[in-house]
Design brief:
alpha/beta, Rossmann fold, Methionyl-tRNA Fmet Formyltransferase, Chain A, domain 2, 7-stranded mixed β-sheet, 5-stranded antiparallel β-sheet, about 25% helix
């Protein structure tokens, strides 16, 4: 039976954990999670989705506050493999070779493309039609380890939230086969081609700004899909930053056409004025007819 220590944080890492827990050939000896965080206006101390899932599955949970906590786990436990999915902490180099099969990271891109914190958002933002998941042997350099297994997938017209769900399910479905092939030395690990590597960082709130005078409708649509979870997209107006909550590249009965760069047109269905709830665009324009002038 393979002894695995699992590290993950957000929703997208839950299904793979559940898949591992249901695998009769696997013993999960621990689940590493980030400490609980204060969430919302009431600042309620809330465990991350992976911790909540681990509690339901009655798995041993270890809160990781810093890299020294990671080192202690690898020193105190005998494990065959450490599996990492969207954990949010760089592992110290000295622990990467301690497990028999090392530390494997599942990255949501077809490496070496989009190494870093926002591979799905970046792929959508750049108009890629295909992305995928990569099982890679973790090394000291971020997302630069040998590729163990990859699965491409179609991401056309999908939003980040949809791709996260798609890739999470794909990872969960592939895990039993990956573990069997990896443990049986049936895979062909190969180094990444450094000359093909691209990188992506974290996005911030201001990255969501769009300017129809400079941005084409297609570019704004790609931003809308890429930033559906965070930070969303907005247009700076005399009423403040107006968030576009539902848009498309095709007109509907109640949509509002917005002229954009390159002689293109974006269609707004709903928006949100600061301090208000998302509202159908025609209702907003009844009170603010020159909002986007």
């Amino acid at each position: 039976m393979m002894k695995i220590f699992y590290f993950g944080t957000p929703d997208l890492a839950v299904k793979p954990l559940e898949a591992l827990a249901s695998d009769a050939e696997v013993e999960i000896i621990g689940v590493g999670v980030m400490p609980d965080k204060k969430i919302g206006r009431q600042q309620v101390l809330t465990p991350c989705p992976v911790k909540q899932a681990a509690e339901k599955l009655k798995l041993p949970i270890f809160e990781i506050k810093n890299k020294q906590d990671l080192v202690k786990i690898f020193e105190k436990h005998e494990l065959d493999l450490a599996l990492v999915i969207a954990f949010g902490m760089i592992f110290p180099g000295e622990i990467l070779d301690k497990p028999r099969l090392g530390v494997v990271n599942v990255h949501f891109s077809l490496l070496p493309k989009y190494r870093g914190a926002s591979p799905v958002q970046s792929a959508i933002l750049n108009g890629d039609e295909v992305s995928g998941i990569t099982f890679q042997r973790m090394v000291a350099e971020l997302d630069a380890g040998d590729i163990l297994l990859q699965r491409p997938d179609d991401i056309r017209e999908k939003r980040t939230s949809e791709v996260f769900e798609q890739f999470s399910c794909s990872t969960a479905a592939l895990l039993p086969l990956f573990l069997q092939l990896y443990d049986g030395e049936c895979l062909d690990p190969h180094p990444q081609k450094e000359e093909q590597a691209t990188h992506c960082g974290k996005f911030v709130k201001n990255d969501g700004e769009v300017d129809p005078k400079q941005d084409s409708a297609t570019h704004i649509w790609q931003k809308f899909r890429a930033f559906d979870l965070f930070p969303g997209i907005f247009i700076a107006t005399s009423k403040g930053n107006v968030k576009l909550t539902d848009i498309s590249l095709e007109a509907t009965e109640n949509s509002h056409p917005l002229s954009c760069a390159d002689d293109s047109t974006l269609y707004i269905h709903s928006a949100q004025i600061p301090g208000k709830k998302p509202t159908p665009i025609q209702e907003i324009l009844n009170g603010h007819p020159n909002l986007f002038d």
